[in-house]
Design a protein that fits this description.
This protein has 10 helices and 9 strands. By secondary structure, it is mostly helical. The protein has 2 domains: 1-100, no CATH class; 120-298, Orthogonal Bundle (Recoverin, domain 1). The strands form 4 sheets. Strands 2-1-3 form a 3-stranded antiparallel sheet, with no helix packed on it. A two-stranded antiparallel ribbon has the order 4-8. Strands 5-6 form a two-stranded antiparallel sheet. The protein starts with a helix and ends with a helix. The mean pLDDT is 83.
Length: 299
């Protein structure tokens, strides 16, 4: 059932064309709450679906399915239409249902293996690092640290070389945020190691952005952002995806490259900060007011 559409019809809005599909959950995912990823729907057919998509306030069907775990996915017929809905399930026998939610987690970087001869890619990376170290030394000066304005110059000079990436570069405020989130010693600047870590992250996130910016518009929409966040190794729930959209998307629900990178830098830094405070690994941290304000205000 569509919510609030009658009220919005008074303002000229029409009912969405709606329907739903039912998919069988793979046995290896039984008992979990993880979302099924995009690839699942490319290679698995639905077990049942509404007879048609129709522009009515509600649609209902009756099915007979063997006992198992299933996912019900309501949707609009047209892509990128967003609205609230109510899903009701009636069963002749007792049945459990709940909203699919991901565990909130981030993939931890794996440790590099020692004793192997460096590959050509590793040697190329080493040469790139030497180039960056020289550029960094020229900009940073004797203290070998750079501030937000200097970081902006370095990043924007590099981004300009990527002609296939349509972006106006990074705003100063974005670079201030990056400095704050990467600054481990509280100096207001970042040293070469902190900069190198930031640059490695930006390179990997840039590849993800380009993968979803298929029309080369310099933006991705909020629906693609969910998959991009997942590709980057972050597992979030619906509430957090909504927060990301509210915080980083424009009025058309699109996210540009600058906002995309800022979002990932913050996610990465906040997960690292949480793990640093979570000494016993139980997923719960305790902060006093000073620690809380230092963590949130500087970030």
């Amino acid at each position: 059932m569509q919510k609030n559409r009658r009220k919005e019809r008074k303002l000229g809005a029409n009912l969405y064309t709606i329907g739903f599909a039912i998919y069988e959950v793979p046995k290896e995912m039984h008992g979990t709450k993880h979302h099924l990823q995009k690839d699942f729907f490319l290679y698995n057919a639905s077990k049942a679906r509404s007879k048609t998509y129709i522009n009515m306030r509600e649609i209902s069907e009756r099915f007979r399915l063997p006992p198992n775990e299933y996912v019900i996915i309501p949707s609009t017929y047209e892509p990128h239409q967003e609205g609230e809905f109510i899903l009701r399930v009636f069963s002749e026998k007792r049945s459990l249902s709940e909203e699919a939610e991901n565990m909130i987690e981030a993939e931890r970087p794996s440790k590099k293996k020692k004793g192997k001869r460096p590959s050509a890619k590793a040697r190329e990376s080493s040469e790139e690092e030497n180039q960056f170290r020289n550029i960094f030394r020229q900009i940073a000066g004797d203290d070998m640290e750079i501030n937000a304005e200097e970081l902006r110059n370095v990043l924007n000079n590099v981004v300009k070389k990527h002609k296939d990436l349509k972006t106006e570069g990074f705003e100063l405020e974005s670079c201030r945020s990056m400095i704050a989130l990467m600054d481990t010693d509280g100096s207001g600047k970042i040293n070469f190691d902190e900069f190198r870590h930031l640059w490695d992250k930006i390179k990997s996130w840039q590849k993800i952005f380009k993968r979803y910016d298929t029309d080369h518009s310099g933006t991705i929409n909020s629906y693609e952002m969910r998959n991009a966040v997942n590709d980057a190794g972050f597992r979030l729930n619906n509430q957090l995806y909504d927060i990301i959209t509210m915080r980083y998307a424009d009025k058309n629900m699109n996210i540009d490259f600058d906002s995309f990178i800022c979002c990932f830098v913050r996610l990465d830094a906040m997960f690292r900060a949480f793990h640093a405070f979570d000494k016993d690994g139980d997923g719960i941290i305790k902060l006093n007011v000073l620690e809380w304000l230092q963590l949130t205000m500087y970030a």
